[in-house]
Input
Amino acid sequence: MKKLLILGAGTAGTMVANRMARLLGPDEWQITLVDQNETHYYQPGFLFIPFGIYSKNDVIKPKRDFIPNGAELIMSPIESIDPEHNQVTLAKGNRTLSYDFLVIATGSQVHPEQTPGLLEHEWRNSIHEFYTIDGAVTLAKHLRTWQGGRMLVNVVENPIKCPVAPLEFLMLADWFFHEQGVRERVDITFATPLPGAFTKPVASRYLGDILEQKGIKVVPEFMVEHVDPDAKKIVSYDEQELEYDLLVSIPLNMGDEVIAKSGLGDELNFIPVDKNTFLHPKYANVFVLGDAANIPTSKAGSVAHFAVDCSSHNFLRCIDGLEMLPTFDGHANCFIESGFGKGLLIDFNYEVEPLPGRYPLPGVGPFSLLQESEFNHWGKMMFRWMYWNLLLKGQELPLPALMSMAGKWNK
Ligand SMILES: Cc1cc2nc3c(=O)[nH]c(=O)nc-3n(C[C@H](O)[C@H](O)[C@H](O)COP(=O)(O)OP(=O)(O)OC[C@H]3O[C@@H](n4cnc5c(N)ncnc54)[C@H](O)[C@@H]3O)c2cc1C
Output
């Protein structure tokens, strides 16, 4: 039997296991996944928890429910990866697994301890985050009784998972405080290391305008150096200071420690790979999918889905000894919840930045691109059903894996 070993049974690892289980002969291949945590989290749902729209139960399911028949799921932290000898060591029982092909899908996690002052006595009191389940649930409790004041949302550094999530948080906060009847008592500010609201110029302009209309102030190019939890202020490297009553931080995102220990990562523990094939530049039997990869597109579940669509047939070429095709174009798309039952949609790739227009979807669409609509809000809310029922199971969706210019206004 040949062995396909997948590290991480999150979004990307589960999708690739399901897809490959269908494509590879069960008599020839043993598929094994390793993960340290029994629970699968629908992370896009974390955004809605602070505002009471979802609860914890709405975003969790057992990982085992999504593992394909015949595949093995081993629950253990991964201790180290040794690509020179095609081996992975697990923390539990000091067990060693060998492989013919390896997929690394260990994702990205937040690291508040990397910013001085963030993870001190005010953590989870006046300083919060919503990128983990515990953080989102604690923030929900805090917001239920918060009397208002200065709410400061700060991205410590990029790249972060789902780069639009902080903007969605800001716009949902604006809606939430209106609903609570306290909006006039809340000052909402967004401090970002980027030159504007978002990474790409056209989207940054559109999204920046929407934030302004909602009375949300943007402080660009703010590189936080430390947090002063007693004085309740964040201080940048160039000594700008911003005061807050409630700080919602998006802490530094990093790849898993095992990547650093195994000598595979960059300074943030993300793994450099070929951006079109996901193949490791040095190891011809090692692929990296999902947030763990250092590629110049968004760290998003949608990217992982398009990546699996593009790479599965390429993977078959690889195991047949054929040259891989440079198929993946960096395609990413994301609904952006903007509050008051509306949302936007962005769709882009390595070459084409998010543009306005219409996103055609046979039988359902079109969805409006970079413009608010109720239809986009329903798209966002439907995404959770699609995630559990189609995406994770590695089903084909009626969405092209490669980005299309159809409907986009090219200006
Ligand atoms: C607040 C928020 C909102 C988001 N919104 C969207 C959205 O609207 N649209 C979208 O497309 N994406 C969104 N995302 C991003 C999306 O959730 C991630 O990009 C996606 O889950 C990445 O999948 P992954 O498989 O790479 O990582 P994960 O799904 O995080 O899986 C990684 C897995 O590896 C395991 N693992 C890691 N290290 C080890 C180890 N040493 N030993 C054992 N197991 C290990 C972990 O336990 C985990 O199960 C959002 C994320 C957040 C946090």
Summary: The chain is about 25% helix and 25% strand. Residues 8-13, 34-37, 43-44, 46-47, 77-78, 105-107, 130-131, 161-162, 165, 256, 258, 290-292, 299-302, 304, 334 surround flavin-adenine dinucleotide (CB under 6 Å). Helices lie at 11-23, 133-145, 165-179, 201-213, 257-261, 301-319, 374-391. The mean pLDDT is 96.
